[in-house]
Design a protein that fits this description.
alpha/beta; 3 domains; kinase; protein dimerization activity; 52 kDa repressor of the inhibitor of the protein kinase
């Protein structure tokens, strides 16, 4: 008998005992992985849809209900697992949930960082901003901007990716800089590729002596700081408050909107108008524009409420105050001025929030605004204000409001006396001209070029290159190379200059800098310089959007959530497209990481 068995094994008619045991072990592992795969998929579903996993009790909540629903839908593997498992091998406890969520976040983050550290990626920029969550913890949101290239090095796209939240114990520059650098070190990010820092303009982040950007630049000198363009444009509008009439008008508009929105009954009396929020860039312009477009309807309701016996006394009194404020000549004229220029700023603000926008696009948008505002201030001053004033007059006639000049005295303390020949002339001199002057001055100051080496990279764009003679161009190239030290850059730049000046390829200022990489197959150094330019962060809108996710995930009902759980859930929510597009491989990656530690059930084939 023994000889017969030995003969069968030698002739491969039967498997040896060790192979049979190994097959049984592998079959057991496959079954165990199938069980856990359903649990991981349920956790991923909750995370990508911003659903709370746990309920009031440990055995209730969306996660447990989703597992039951899977069984009802025919998941026989999961059903068999729950029937036969022990408490220690069920793998649905909150500790296992936290561990699997943490692994999900790590897998997503690792995928992004591998792209940054890839040899095809030349450079990247760090983005960061801070906000307080619902429980009062200061959360630092960290992200990156880089160019993702396929193996052909031709098909490229700009990526801005969220990497995670870091809780802050202190809000000074030293602590924030330390947390950013520690985060990068923990996640093995290749900091030698860092070329840009995108923050807001507060002194803690942007300070040239002791700010976060200065402290990081001391260790990584190629990392130039860029103040977020969307923040700067928002500050331009805030600077307009130096014009008293504008400040008072904006305050009145906010009060009127708040008056109608704070009551359901009053809200139904007018169309829906978004709140005028100082920190939400698009909402501010849209709110003023919609308010102006519906002002006649709003004013009629305000005028009717003080005599309406169906509303309470407080409502009648407040409506009377707002009705009087909105009947002022200065308010009506200011509202039309602000609405006109808010409508111009709104599309630019929306355009700056795109990921594909680059530094050249930002400057082009700003230059268009500057050219338009200068024309309105100089050659078209009278005609522009004439249109605004006629619109304001037409609005005033609906309510029999007569335009008049404020009282003028010999000695004026709180406002200027203007030598005006008419009502129109008075408001042009007292409001319109100061408004445009402030707008132009603030735009020029806040969007002036500060990073010379970085902004000189614009000259690699053929549209700007063709405007320079060869000596001017090569002088620019020398400054760039002295800062970035790109191998063979000077020699390639000379050929690049001749290449574009000796052919008829049509290139305009509308040509995206990203598209130029298609012409760089034989210009490796030029491609590196262009990629650096693309990576420089024009805005931090990606980071701002992560705050919206934070508020969806950490709500009043989930305010005691741990930091690791919060970070992982936000990673799943923000990167849901990546998870959905790679669902099977993503779940397998999570399973592989989970199986590395010793478990009560076997999940790894290497065991």
């Amino acid at each position: 008998m023994k000889s017969k068995l030995f003969s069968d094994v030698i002739t491969n008619k039967k498997k040896s005992i060790d192979l049979q045991l190994n097959d049984a072990n592998n079959e057991l592992i496959v079954k165990n992985r199938d069980k856990l795969r359903s649990i991981i998929s349920s956790i991923v579903f909750c995370g990508t849809h911003d659903l709370a996993l746990r309920g009031k009790q440990s055995d209730s909540g969306n996660f447990q209900d989703l597992l039951k629903f899977r069984i009802e839908a025919g998941d026989s593997v999961l059903e068999e697992h729950f029937k036969t498992c022990t408490v220690r091998t069920k793998y649905t406890s909150h500790r296992v949930q936290n561990e699997l969520l943490n692994i999900c976040g790590l897998v997503i983050r690792k995928n992004i960082i591998e792209k940054i550290n890839n040899e095809n990626t030349i450079a990247f920029s760090l983005l960061a901003d801070e906000t307080a969550d619902i429980s009062g913890i200061e959360q630092l949101s960290i992200g990156v901007r880089f160019v993702e290239k396929n193996n052909d090095s031709v098909s490229t796209r700009i990526c801005e990716e969220f990497l995670g939240f870091v809780p802050l114990e202190k809000l000074n520059a030293e602590h924030i800089a330390l947390e950013i650098l520690s985060f990068c070190k923990r996640n093995d990010i290749n900091m030698s590729k860092l070329v840009g820092l995108g923050f807001d303009g507060c002194s803690t982040m942007a300070g040239t002596e002791g700010g976060v950007q200065r402290l990081i630049r001391d260790k990584h000198n190629k990392a130039l700081f860029f103040h977020c363009a969307s923040h700067r444009l928002n500050l331009v509008v805030n600077d307009l408050n130096i014009v008293r009439g504008v400040q008072n008008t904006v305050g009145t508009i906010k009060d009127v909107i708040k008056f109608f929105r704070e009551s359901t009954l009053r809200r139904n009396l007018i169309c829906n108008i978004p709140m005028l929020c100082e920190t939400r860039w698009s909402a501010k312009y849209k709110s003023i524009r919609v308010f102006s477009e519906n002002f006649i309807e709003i004013k009629k309701v305000l005028d009717s409420l003080p005599t309406n016996a169906e509303v309470n006394r407080a409502t009648r009194a407040r409506a009377q105050q707002l009705s009087s404020a909105t009947s002022e000549t200065s308010f009506i004229v200011c509202m039309q001025i602000i609405a006109k220029y808010s409508a111009m700023l709104e599309p630019v603000t929306n355009a700056l929030q795109g990921i594909s926008v680059d530094m050249i696009s930002v400057q082009k948008h700003v230059n268009i605004l500057l050219d338009t505002f200068r024309r309105h201030r100089e050659s078209d001053l009278d005609s522009t204000f004439d249109i605004i004033f006629k619109t304001a007059t037409a609005v005033a006639q609906h309510f029999e409001v007569k335009f008049k000049i404020p009282r003028i005295v010999g000695k004026q303390t709180y406002r200027a006396n203007y030598d005006a020949k008419s009502v129109m002339d008075y408001y042009k001199k007292s409001i319109f001209i100061p408004y445009l002057d402030s707008l132009l001055s603030s735009l020029n100051n806040r969007f002036s070029s500060q990073n010379n080496a970085a902004f000189l990279l614009y000259n690699l764009h053929p549209y700007y290159l063709r405007k320079k003679n060869q000596k001017e161009f090569m002088d620019t190239i020398k400054i760039i190379n002295d800062f970035y030290h790109i191998e063979n850059f000077n020699a390639e730049a000379e050929i690049w200059y001749n290449y574009w000046n000796n052919n008829d390829i049509v290139i305009t200022d509308e040509t995206l800098i990203l598209d130029l990489l298609q012409h760089c197959q034989f210009f490796k150094a030029i491609a590196q310089a262009i990629e650096i330019l693309i990576c420089l962060p024009p805005t931090t809108c990606t980071i701002e959007r992560s705050f919206s996710t934070l508020r969806r995930v950490k709500t009043w009902l989930r305010s005691t959530m741990s930091e690791d759980r919060l970070d992982s859930l936000c990673m799943l929510s923000i990167h849901r497209a990546f998870v959905f597009n790679n669902k099977e491989s993503f779940v397998e990656s999570v399973l592989d990481v989970f199986s590395k530690n010793s478990r009560n059930l076997k999940f790894a084939f290497s065991e």
